Write the structure tokens for this entry.
Amino acid sequence: MEAKENPGQGPGTEIAAENAADVSGGDCTTVSVGPVTVSGSGSVGDALISIYDGAVSATSHVIETVANAAK
């Protein structure tokens, strides 16, 4: 996620609505693990679960492919 900075804004001042959405959890969650980035609506936990499920599926596919090639 790209940082949105406003150098003229000091502590205690109101922030823009789009920045408030990012701070409060907002409409979109982005989680990056190495080269894998998952974005979506939902919590960080949901994004991490998606990453885990994708890693399990990829690993399963590789194991199945190697097993079939070894037959």
Q: What stands out?
A: The beta strands are 29-33, 36-40.
